[in-house]
Amino acid sequence: MSKVLIVAEHAGGKLNASTAKCVKAATALGSEIVVAVFAAPGSQVAAQAAALQGVSRVIEVHHAAHEHALAATLAPQVAEIAGSFTHVFGPSTTFGKDLMPRVAALLDAPQVSDVMSIESPTRFRRPIYAGNAITTVEVAADTKIVATIRIASFEAAAGGGTAKVESASPAAALPTHTRFVGLSAAGGDRPDLQSATKVVSGGRALASGEAFKLIYALADKLGAAVGASRAAVDAGYVPSDMQVGQTGKIIAPELYIAIGISGAIQHLTGIKDARTIVAINKDAEAPIFEVADIGLVGDLFTIVPELEKLIDASRK
Ligand SMILES: Cc1cc2nc3c(=O)[nH]c(=O)nc-3n(C[C@H](O)[C@H](O)[C@H](O)COP(=O)(O)OP(=O)(O)OC[C@H]3O[C@@H](n4cnc5c(N)ncnc54)[C@H](O)[C@@H]3O)c2cc1C
Fold first, then answer.
1. Distance 264 CA to ligand 1 centre (A)
2. pLDDT in tens, 42-59
3. pLDDT tens, residue by residue, 74-96
4. Neighbour tally for 136: CB within 10 Å
5. For residue 117, what are the β-bridge partners?
6. From atom 26 of ligand 1, which residue's Cα is the shortest distance away?
7. What percent of the chain has pLDDT over 90?
8. Whole-structure pTM value
9. Which ligand 1 atom is nearest residue 288's CA?
């Protein structure tokens, strides 16, 4: 029988929704599912993981060094705990993409990246060529498998579970060559781009960082995260961690609003699992309208302030 170890992603004392999605993915294996939570002493994240349905057990590893997740620190400990497991899963987020290849290397195991469906314990489907093709990957039996789970492809496991929590203290020496210095995150109090249910993105059409204030204002009214096209990032209007698409973040919000974005294939790759896409573009022939559920043709500098007024009016 398969035994899956999932490395929990969390920050600020809260379990990231990506972990619940990994749990949902692992349930396809009909296996024992164990979540490993690496956190600072006093953290309540293990209890949150234990409440996910499908989880059989939570392994909690408390250490002051786990206040901030560092791949170099976590990888040797994950590899040690992974000993008796057939599969080791992490989310295909920045956290998981950073950590899991190190885990795979330490375990001398193959990694299957960006798993979008699980057909059997050794057979997985994943996107290639920027999502334009789906490949089925077969891993040799009797091999430990490390995988990152494409969180846009799975629902979150429900709550209400009552798994037991055990403490562990891996013997793996923590590396001294890497330490946490500081975290510089854009976005302030806005929702995290990768797990937000609503995202407002701006493109090259904004033409300046200053004009992006329009995008931030609309996002704040909607309680949305802010994203951007690569053209907007390359032009320096916004930081690169806001990029959505093939070489940016792959997201699956309930609502995606693309403002002044043409809809290049590399951008669409990042939003193909979004539930409802709204596009604002002055060019009625822009490719974004081919995937949009709602299209507004016109000048964004007129339409966005109008939208904001409508939102304000609807709340009075
Ligand atoms: C290997 C590779 C990887 C890539 N990865 C990514 C990626 O991850 N993410 C990504 O986004 N791109 C990526 N790209 C780049 C991608 O091909 C496009 O160049 C980019 O997405 C274009 O960004 P844009 O839509 O903002 O700009 P443009 O294509 O220039 O589109 C701007 C749009 O704004 C509209 N517009 C202009 N003025 C207004 C106005 N006043 N009001 C309303 N609409 C207006 C125009 O009609 C146009 O449709 C990648 C490219 C390559 C080769």
1. 6
2. 999 999 999 999 999 999
3. 999 999 999 999 999 999 999 99
4. 10
5. 125
6. 203
7. 87
8. 0.81
9. 49
Q: What's residue 186's pLDDT?
A: 63
Q: CA angle 92-252-89, nearest 5°? A: 20
Q: How far is the CA of 303 from the centre of ligand 1 (A)?
A: 19
Task: Show the ligand 1 pocket: residues with CB < 6 angstroms.
Answer: 203-205, 229-232, 243-248, 260-262, 264, 266-267, 270, 280-283, 286, 299-301
Q: Residue 10: its pLDDT value, please?
A: 96
Q: Which residue's CA is the nearest one to ligand 1's atom 34?
A: 260
CB atoms within 10 A of CB 116: 19
CB 255 within 8 Å of CB 311: no
Q: Looking at residue 303, what is its pLDDT?
A: 98
For 136, phi then psi, to 5°, come to -105, 125
Give the chain's length: 316
- Pull the structure tokens for residue 106: 């330490």
Residue appearing with tokens 């920050």: 11
Give the helix/strand (H/E) hosting 117. strand 117-120
Phi, psi of 146 (to 5 degrees): -105, 135
* Three-state SS at 115: strand
Q: What number is the average pLDDT over the span 11-31?
A: 93
More confident residue, 143 or 316: 143
Which residue's CA is the nearest one to ligand 1's atom 40?
A: 299
Contacts of 296 (CB under 8 A, 6+ apart): 278, 279, 280, 281, 303
CB 294 within 8 A of CB 288: no
Helix (H) or strand (E) holding 227: strand 225-228
Q: What is the mean pLDDT of residues 172-190?
A: 82
Residue of the CA atom closest to atom 22 of ligand 1: 231
pLDDT digits (tens, 9 = 90+) for 250-275: 999 999 999 999 999 999 999 988 99
- pLDDT value of position 187: 61
- With vertex at residue 270, the alpha carbon angle to CA 223 and CA 275, rounded to the nearest 5 degrees, is 55
Sheet hosting strand 255-259, strand order edge to edge: 225-228, 198-202, 255-259, 276-281, 294-297
Which residues is 138 bridged to in the sheet?
Answer: 123
